[in-house]
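Review form for a predicted model. The reviewer records the input and the model, then writes brief findings.
Reviewer: anonymous (R2)
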Amino acid sequence: MSGFSDRARAGGPMAAAVVAAATLVAGCASAPVMQPGSDGRFGATLPAAPVPAELNHGAIYQPASAQGLFEDYKARRVGDVLTVLLAERTQAQKSANASTSKDSSVDLTSPTLLGRDVTRNGVPILENRVDASRSFEGQGDAAQSNMLEGSITVTVADVLPNGNLIVQGEKWMRINQGEEYIRLRGIVRPVDVRADNTVLSTQIASAELAYGGTGTVAASSSPGWLSRFFNSPLWPF
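Model under review:
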Protein backbone atom coordinates (compact mmCIF):
# COMPACT_ATOMS: atom_id res chain seq x y z
CA MET A 1 0.00 0.00 0.00
CA SER A 2 2.94 2.34 0.69
CA GLY A 3 4.27 1.81 -2.87
CA PHE A 4 0.81 2.67 -4.21
CA SER A 5 0.85 5.95 -2.26
CA ASP A 6 4.35 6.81 -3.45
CA ARG A 7 3.38 6.31 -7.10
CA ALA A 8 0.25 8.40 -6.55
CA ARG A 9 2.27 11.29 -5.17
CA ALA A 10 4.73 10.98 -8.05
CA GLY A 11 1.99 10.93 -10.65
CA GLY A 12 0.31 14.10 -9.48
CA PRO A 13 -3.31 14.92 -8.67
CA MET A 14 -4.74 12.66 -11.39
CA ALA A 15 -3.04 9.55 -10.04
CA ALA A 16 -4.06 10.46 -6.50
CA ALA A 17 -7.69 10.78 -7.61
CA VAL A 18 -7.54 7.34 -9.28
CA VAL A 19 -6.11 5.77 -6.12
CA ALA A 20 -8.79 7.46 -3.99
CA ALA A 21 -11.55 6.21 -6.30
CA ALA A 22 -10.14 2.67 -6.20
CA THR A 23 -10.01 2.78 -2.42
CA LEU A 24 -13.63 3.99 -2.29
CA VAL A 25 -14.78 1.20 -4.60
CA ALA A 26 -12.90 -1.38 -2.53
CA GLY A 27 -14.53 -0.06 0.63
CA CYS A 28 -17.99 -0.31 -0.93
CA ALA A 29 -17.31 -3.83 -2.20
CA SER A 30 -16.42 -5.06 1.28
CA ALA A 31 -19.80 -4.13 2.80
CA PRO A 32 -21.22 -6.80 5.12
CA VAL A 33 -23.65 -9.27 3.55
CA MET A 34 -26.97 -10.14 5.20
CA GLN A 35 -26.74 -13.63 6.69
CA PRO A 36 -28.94 -15.85 8.89
CA GLY A 37 -28.48 -14.90 12.51
CA SER A 38 -26.63 -11.68 11.67
CA ASP A 39 -29.13 -9.64 13.73
CA GLY A 40 -29.33 -10.98 17.26
CA ARG A 41 -32.70 -9.33 17.88
CA PHE A 42 -34.38 -11.97 15.72
CA GLY A 43 -32.41 -15.03 16.84
CA ALA A 44 -34.08 -18.10 18.33
CA THR A 45 -34.26 -18.24 22.15
CA LEU A 46 -33.58 -21.51 23.95
CA PRO A 47 -35.64 -22.59 26.98
CA ALA A 48 -34.19 -22.28 30.47
CA ALA A 49 -32.06 -25.22 31.55
CA PRO A 50 -33.59 -27.39 34.31
CA VAL A 51 -32.15 -27.08 37.80
CA PRO A 52 -29.60 -29.83 38.51
CA ALA A 53 -30.82 -32.59 40.81
CA GLU A 54 -28.33 -31.75 43.55
CA LEU A 55 -29.78 -28.24 43.79
CA ASN A 56 -33.47 -29.17 43.90
CA HIS A 57 -33.18 -32.04 46.41
CA GLY A 58 -33.76 -34.70 43.76
CA ALA A 59 -37.39 -33.77 43.16
CA ILE A 60 -39.16 -35.20 40.12
CA TYR A 61 -41.01 -31.94 39.47
CA GLN A 62 -39.07 -29.58 37.22
CA PRO A 63 -40.57 -26.05 36.93
CA ALA A 64 -38.81 -25.39 33.62
CA SER A 65 -40.50 -28.29 31.83
CA ALA A 66 -43.65 -28.87 33.89
CA GLN A 67 -46.97 -29.37 32.11
CA GLY A 68 -50.31 -29.15 33.91
CA LEU A 69 -52.87 -31.90 33.53
CA PHE A 70 -55.52 -29.51 32.22
CA GLU A 71 -53.30 -27.12 30.20
CA ASP A 72 -52.88 -27.00 26.46
CA TYR A 73 -49.64 -26.78 24.55
CA LYS A 74 -49.83 -23.11 23.56
CA ALA A 75 -46.66 -21.05 23.90
CA ARG A 76 -46.30 -19.49 27.33
CA ARG A 77 -42.68 -19.93 28.48
CA VAL A 78 -39.26 -18.79 27.27
CA GLY A 79 -38.12 -21.02 24.44
CA ASP A 80 -41.61 -22.17 23.39
CA VAL A 81 -42.41 -21.89 19.69
CA LEU A 82 -45.32 -19.97 18.22
CA THR A 83 -46.50 -19.83 14.61
CA VAL A 84 -47.39 -16.37 13.30
CA LEU A 85 -49.80 -16.15 10.37
CA LEU A 86 -48.76 -13.20 8.23
CA ALA A 87 -51.78 -11.21 7.07
CA GLU A 88 -50.31 -7.78 6.44
CA ARG A 89 -52.12 -5.50 4.01
CA THR A 90 -51.69 -1.72 3.93
CA GLN A 91 -52.87 0.91 1.49
CA ALA A 92 -52.28 4.64 1.68
CA GLN A 93 -53.09 7.50 -0.67
CA LYS A 94 -52.50 11.22 -0.38
CA SER A 95 -53.26 14.14 -2.66
CA ALA A 96 -52.53 17.85 -2.21
CA ASN A 97 -53.24 20.93 -4.32
CA ALA A 98 -52.26 24.52 -3.68
CA SER A 99 -52.76 27.72 -5.66
CA THR A 100 -51.99 31.33 -4.70
CA SER A 101 -51.86 34.62 -6.57
CA LYS A 102 -51.21 38.24 -5.70
CA ASP A 103 -51.31 41.45 -7.76
CA SER A 104 -50.25 44.90 -6.58
CA SER A 105 -49.93 48.31 -8.20
CA VAL A 106 -48.51 51.62 -6.88
CA ASP A 107 -48.76 55.00 -8.64
CA LEU A 108 -46.66 57.98 -7.50
CA THR A 109 -47.73 61.15 -9.31
CA SER A 110 -45.26 63.92 -9.90
CA PRO A 111 -45.17 66.30 -6.92
CA THR A 112 -45.23 70.07 -7.33
CA LEU A 113 -42.76 72.54 -5.92
CA LEU A 114 -43.82 76.19 -5.62
CA GLY A 115 -46.77 75.46 -7.88
CA ARG A 116 -44.71 73.82 -10.62
CA ASP A 117 -43.97 70.23 -11.49
CA VAL A 118 -40.46 69.01 -10.84
CA THR A 119 -39.12 68.34 -14.35
CA ARG A 120 -35.92 68.12 -16.27
CA ASN A 121 -35.98 69.29 -19.82
CA GLY A 122 -39.77 69.24 -19.56
CA VAL A 123 -39.91 65.59 -18.38
CA PRO A 124 -41.21 64.82 -14.84
CA ILE A 125 -38.42 63.12 -12.86
CA LEU A 126 -40.32 62.21 -9.67
CA GLU A 127 -43.27 60.41 -11.22
CA ASN A 128 -43.19 56.58 -10.69
CA ARG A 129 -45.36 53.54 -11.24
CA VAL A 130 -44.78 50.07 -9.79
CA ASP A 131 -46.67 46.90 -10.86
CA ALA A 132 -46.13 43.47 -9.33
CA SER A 133 -47.76 40.12 -9.94
CA ARG A 134 -47.06 36.78 -8.26
CA SER A 135 -48.63 33.36 -8.65
CA PHE A 136 -47.96 29.81 -7.45
CA GLU A 137 -49.51 26.45 -8.27
CA GLY A 138 -48.54 23.12 -6.76
CA GLN A 139 -49.89 19.60 -6.94
CA GLY A 140 -48.76 16.33 -5.38
CA ASP A 141 -50.02 12.74 -5.33
CA ALA A 142 -48.71 9.71 -3.47
CA ALA A 143 -50.00 6.16 -3.26
CA GLN A 144 -48.60 3.03 -1.67
CA SER A 145 -49.91 -0.52 -1.29
CA ASN A 146 -48.28 -3.50 0.45
CA MET A 147 -49.30 -7.10 1.03
CA LEU A 148 -47.49 -9.91 2.84
CA GLU A 149 -49.00 -13.34 3.39
CA GLY A 150 -47.50 -16.55 4.71
CA SER A 151 -46.32 -17.86 8.07
CA ILE A 152 -43.24 -17.86 10.28
CA THR A 153 -42.56 -19.81 13.46
CA VAL A 154 -40.84 -17.83 16.20
CA THR A 155 -39.74 -18.48 19.77
CA VAL A 156 -40.69 -16.81 23.04
CA ALA A 157 -37.75 -14.63 24.08
CA ASP A 158 -39.16 -13.30 27.35
CA VAL A 159 -42.32 -13.27 29.49
CA LEU A 160 -43.40 -9.87 30.81
CA PRO A 161 -44.76 -9.41 34.36
CA ASN A 162 -48.32 -9.14 33.00
CA GLY A 163 -47.97 -12.45 31.13
CA ASN A 164 -47.49 -11.05 27.64
CA LEU A 165 -44.90 -12.80 25.47
CA ILE A 166 -42.02 -11.20 23.61
CA VAL A 167 -41.52 -13.31 20.49
CA GLN A 168 -38.81 -13.14 17.86
CA GLY A 169 -37.52 -15.21 14.99
CA GLU A 170 -36.43 -15.33 11.37
CA LYS A 171 -37.03 -17.58 8.38
CA TRP A 172 -34.60 -18.00 5.46
CA MET A 173 -35.39 -19.61 2.12
CA ARG A 174 -32.89 -20.28 -0.67
CA ILE A 175 -34.53 -19.83 -4.06
CA ASN A 176 -32.44 -20.26 -7.23
CA GLN A 177 -29.80 -17.52 -7.26
CA GLY A 178 -30.45 -15.95 -3.87
CA GLU A 179 -32.01 -16.15 -0.45
CA GLU A 180 -35.14 -14.54 0.92
CA TYR A 181 -35.78 -13.90 4.59
CA ILE A 182 -38.60 -12.91 6.92
CA ARG A 183 -37.86 -11.47 10.35
CA LEU A 184 -40.36 -10.73 13.09
CA ARG A 185 -40.30 -9.42 16.63
CA GLY A 186 -43.12 -8.13 18.85
CA ILE A 187 -45.38 -8.65 21.87
CA VAL A 188 -48.19 -11.23 21.93
CA ARG A 189 -51.05 -11.55 24.40
CA PRO A 190 -51.58 -15.17 25.46
CA VAL A 191 -55.33 -14.74 25.01
CA ASP A 192 -54.76 -14.03 21.29
CA VAL A 193 -52.98 -17.35 20.75
CA ARG A 194 -55.34 -19.82 19.10
CA ALA A 195 -55.89 -23.43 20.12
CA ASP A 196 -53.52 -24.61 17.35
CA ASN A 197 -50.73 -22.39 18.75
CA THR A 198 -51.00 -19.72 16.04
CA VAL A 199 -51.56 -15.98 16.17
CA LEU A 200 -52.26 -13.37 13.49
CA SER A 201 -49.52 -10.87 12.76
CA THR A 202 -52.11 -8.08 13.03
CA GLN A 203 -52.51 -8.94 16.73
CA ILE A 204 -48.83 -8.45 17.58
CA ALA A 205 -47.99 -5.22 19.40
CA SER A 206 -44.84 -3.18 18.60
CA ALA A 207 -44.27 -5.50 15.65
CA GLU A 208 -40.99 -5.32 13.73
CA LEU A 209 -41.50 -7.13 10.45
CA ALA A 210 -38.84 -7.27 7.74
CA TYR A 211 -38.90 -9.00 4.37
CA GLY A 212 -35.98 -8.89 1.97
CA GLY A 213 -33.51 -10.91 -0.02
CA THR A 214 -29.90 -11.40 -0.95
CA GLY A 215 -28.09 -12.72 -4.00
CA THR A 216 -28.02 -11.97 -7.70
CA VAL A 217 -31.68 -11.03 -8.13
CA ALA A 218 -31.68 -8.68 -5.13
CA ALA A 219 -28.42 -7.04 -6.25
CA SER A 220 -29.61 -6.52 -9.84
CA SER A 221 -32.83 -4.85 -8.70
CA SER A 222 -31.05 -2.19 -6.59
CA PRO A 223 -28.98 0.77 -7.88
CA GLY A 224 -25.21 0.81 -7.54
CA TRP A 225 -23.32 2.87 -4.99
CA LEU A 226 -22.55 5.64 -7.51
CA SER A 227 -26.23 5.95 -8.50
CA ARG A 228 -27.22 6.06 -4.83
CA PHE A 229 -24.72 8.88 -4.29
CA PHE A 230 -26.15 11.00 -7.11
CA ASN A 231 -29.69 10.41 -5.78
CA SER A 232 -28.78 11.18 -2.17
CA PRO A 233 -29.09 14.54 -0.37
CA LEU A 234 -25.27 14.80 -0.51
CA TRP A 235 -25.42 15.61 -4.25
CA PRO A 236 -25.95 19.39 -4.40
CA PHE A 237 -27.36 19.61 -7.95
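Findings: The chain has four helices and ten strands.
Further findings: Confidence is low (pLDDT under 50) at residues 1-5, 22-32.
Recommendation: see findings above.
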